[in-house]
Amino acid sequence: MFSKFSRTDIIYAKKFSENYENNEIIRFYDDNLKDMYMHNFTFIKKSVCKDNFRKIIFDELEKRKVENAKFLRIEFNFSIEDDFINNLPVTPKVTKYDYMYINPQMCDYLTGNEECNLTKALSEKVLNDGIEVDILANQLAMGSEFARKRIYRKSEVYKQHNSNLDLYVCDYNGISIGKCEFMLNNDIAKIEDFDIIKNYQRKGFGTSVIKHLLEEAKNQCIEFVYLITDSGDSAKEMYKKCGFKKAGEKTELFFDLS
Hints:
Elements: H1 2-14, E1 18-21, E2 25-29, E3 41-44, H2 50-66, E4 71-76, H3 82-86, E5 93-102, E6 116-120, H4 124-142, H5 144-158, E7 165-172, E8 175-185, E9 188-196, H6 205-219, E10 224-230, H7 236-242, E11 245-256
Parallel strand pairs: 3-4, 9-10
Antiparallel strand pairs: 1-2, 2-3, 4-11, 5-10, 5-11, 6-7, 7-8, 8-9
Helix pairs in contact: 4-5
């Protein structure tokens, strides 16, 4: 199950990035938005010995320095001792993420705010509403200019007719108050970039979005729906209350090269 989630994550990343792959790594890069952390990173595909791990880090650091890059971001799904990471030549910021999953049948047990409507962004109007609510939700953390560049870059993928990645927009009383991505991959579905505007949080809207997406997954005969959270994700308790369970972990190393 966890391996299916990891493979789905790779498929998701490839929608926004070009990539180079060998036996040990996949290197993702987005020339359209080089400062976008989630589109420019190196994924270590499988557990390696410490010497190989150190070599991968050295090689990726050197490559990024030659490119005059401002950062190096590494992801992997296996365990490495904290002491080993802290003794690398450049000390990274370490973030742990949880893969959380749920059976779509759980939609039958969820109740949310019935005044919430969730619409797939198939029209230009709904897409534009989703873009604006994304900027509003992220501009404080990212800055409004980068938040705008980011969502316009992502919207290029939403518009592709053959894409299995969709943007959904949450409305309340005619006001767009949230959005999320939903991607189908065979019998797995991924929820990503889920935001409810701060003033509307803790009012049942997030649960309503989850319920709607689980119903969609159930109708598509999806086995599991998953998402990824970190310790700072304010919605993590909501996911647990909805019935999400932990399936595994991902580690991110972020090297500031600026």
